[in-house]
Specification:
85 residues, five-stranded antiparallel β-sheet, alpha+beta
C-alpha cells in the first residue's frame, strides 16, 4: 500500500493530498530511510512522522483499504512520541 494512502486510511493525516505534501517535505522516514508518497508500506515497518514540534514513531500493524473511524488506530501501534527541538 502506498504511504499516502496508509496515512489517510489510518487517519494519522486526514487527507491524502496533505499526506503527499508532508512526505514531499521529507518529514517521514520508514525504517530509517526518507520516504516518498509512493513508497510501499508493509506490516512491521517502523515509521517516523514529524508533525510540527513532535516526532511520532509508529509500527505498522495491519494494511486495509478502508476502515471505520473507530478502527483506524488498530492499523498501527505508537512506539514513541517525543518533542522536537
Amino acid at each position: 500500500m502506498r504511504l499516502d494512502k496508509f496515512l489517510k486510511v489510518s487517519r494519522l493525516i486526514k487527507r491524502r493530498t496533505l499526506a503527499k505534501e508532508v512526505a514531499d517535505q521529507g518529514r517521514i522516514t520508514i525504517n530509517g530511510v526518507q520516504a516518498k508518497a509512493s513508497t510501499n508500506v508493509a506490516v512491521g515497518d517502523e515509521m517516523a512522522i514529524r508533525f510540527g514540534q513532535k516526532l511520532l514513531t509508529i509500527e505498522v500493524q495491519q494494511l486495509k483499504e478502508a476502515v471505520k473511524k473507530d478502527d483506524a488506530a488498530t492499523l498501527y501501534k505508537v512506539k514513541k512520541e517525543e518533542p522536537v527541538q
